[in-house]
Amino acid sequence: MRVLGIDCGSARTGYGIIDSDGRRHRMVAAGAIRTSAQAPFEKRLLKIAGELRALLREHAPDRAAVEGVFYSANVQTALKLAQVRGVALLVVAEAGVALAEYSPLEVKTSVVGYGRAEKAQVQLMVQSLLKLDRPIESEDAADALAVAICHATHEATRARIERV
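The structure corresponding to this sequence follows.
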C-alpha cells in the first residue's frame, strides 16, 4: 500500500509518502509545504491545498492519514491548525483517497512505543524503520512519515484480524 501522511501546520505542513506491506516500509517522498507568515491566511491555505493536490497526483497514494487535533492553550493557533486540517481533509476527499486520523499519542506509541516520546525520538525511529542513512532533517516531514507508518501498521493489523 502507498500511504500519504500529513502533519498539518499553517507555517509548515509536513508530508511523507511511504510504500508499505505493514511490516516493512520504504520512503517514497517527504518534505514540508512552507508558507509565508506575511501572506494572507487564505493564500496560505490555497498554497497548502495546491501542493497537496500535486502530491496526490504525482504519487497516487492508496490511503492518507493525518494527525488529529491536539489540545492547545492558544485558541488562535488551534483555530488555524483546524483550518489547515480542513483543507487537507477536503483535498484528500476530492482525490477519492481513503483517510484515517490518529492522535499524537497513537502515532508516537505506534512508531516509538511510548506515547510521550520527544520529537528527536520520533525522528530516530522513523530513520530506523525506513532504514535511512540519517534522520529526516525536517521535524514536520518526520512527523508526517510517522503518521504514514502508524497508518500502515494499523491497516496491516486490521487486515490480519479480519482474516482470522
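The radius of gyration is 15 Å.
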